[in-house]
Design a protein that fits this description.
The protein has helices spanning about 25-30, 50-55, 60-70, 90-100, 110-120, 130-145, 160-165, 170-175, 200-210, 215-225; strands at about 10-15, 35-40, 75, 105, 125-130, 150-155, 190, 215. It has about 240 residues and is an alpha/beta fold. It folds into 2 domains: about 10-110 and about 220-240, Rossmann fold, CATH 3.40.50; about 110-215, 3-Layer(aba) Sandwich (Rossmann fold), CATH 3.40.50.1860. The strands form 2 sheets. Strands 2-1-3-4 form a 4-stranded parallel beta sheet, sandwiched between helices. Strands 6-5-7-8 form a 4-stranded parallel beta sheet, with helices on both faces. Helix 1 links the parallel strand 1 (about 10-15) and strand 2 (about 35-40). The two termini are about 20 Å apart.
Length: about 240
């Protein structure tokens, strides 16, 4: 990692799907004041297995280009895009991005696992905007990591711009309406998708449910700031862990 000089702010590189309109605003709103966010994009219009698979091939080039900006750490901000090939792909992706950018790198799926571990969460409820096919891939990934998924609920949306049109109140209602096991019976709730604007809902949900709530962007922001060795204070119990 490049040591920041006294006259420049820490630079965070953010790799997002081309249709993502949420990650950059949330990173800039909730990220550290003494850090700047620099984006790179990979082609994706619909959140489907085929498009996510194709998109992942552009990740290394995006990281390489962010390296040209002398960033201090890189975040790959796509949940399903970093778990699409199952257990182990997230770690391989981080290693490839780190090699390309020449700085520490994190990928959302692995950041979520680190976040849940930091919160000592073993049993979770999951809310997503995805189709059933992607929900099952996410469930399999989380369970392979040793987590118990009490319930997972998806909205069945493929178009990423439609996901980006959702707001924090949509996330709040979806979490409160999770069926099967109630969120109060779990250690944490996970709201998946970096294009699902939900970080704004975390504080209210934690107050209502009495358990930590982790979002994809929240976990990724927390993790990349750890990688860049810079403090960050955003909504939720995750940002109060050591």
């Amino acid at each position: 990692m490049t040591e920041p000089t006294p006259d420049r702010r820490t630079r965070l590189g953010l790799i997002v799907p081309s249709s993502n309109t949420t990650a950059e605003p949330e990173f800039r709103r909730y990220g550290p004041e003494d850090a700047t966010v620099h984006g790179a994009r990979m082609a994706l219009e619909s959140v489907t297995v085929d498009e996510l698979d194709e998109m992942s091939r552009g990740a290394v080039r995006a990281a390489e280009l962010l390296g040209h900006a002398d960033v201090d750490a890189v975040a790959y901000a796509c949940t399903t895009g970093s778990l699409i090939h199952g257990p182990g792909f997230d770690a391989e992706l981080e290693a490839d991005l780190e090699a390309a950018a020449g700085v520490p790198a994190v990928a959302t799926a692995r950041s979520v696992l680190r976040a849940l571990e930091a919160l000592s969460a073993d049993r979770i409820a999951v809310a997503t905007p995805y189709t059933a096919t992607l929900d099952e891939k996410e469930r399999a990934f989380l369970e392979a990591a040793g987590l118990e998924v009490a319930t997972i609920d998806g909205r069945g949306i493929e178009a990423n711009t439609e996901i980006g049109a959702l707001g924090p109140e949509d996330a709040r209602r979806q979490v409160l309406n999770l069926d099967s096991d109630r969120p109060a019976d779990v250690d944490a709730v996970f709201i998946s998708c970096t294009n699902y604007r939900s970080l704004e809902a975390v504080a209210d949900l934690e107050a209502e449910l009495g358990v930590p709530v982790v979002t994809s962007n929240g976990a990724t922001l927390w993790d990349v700031c750890r990688a860049a060795d810079i403090p960050v204070d955003a909504p939720g119990a995750l940002f109060r862990t050591e």
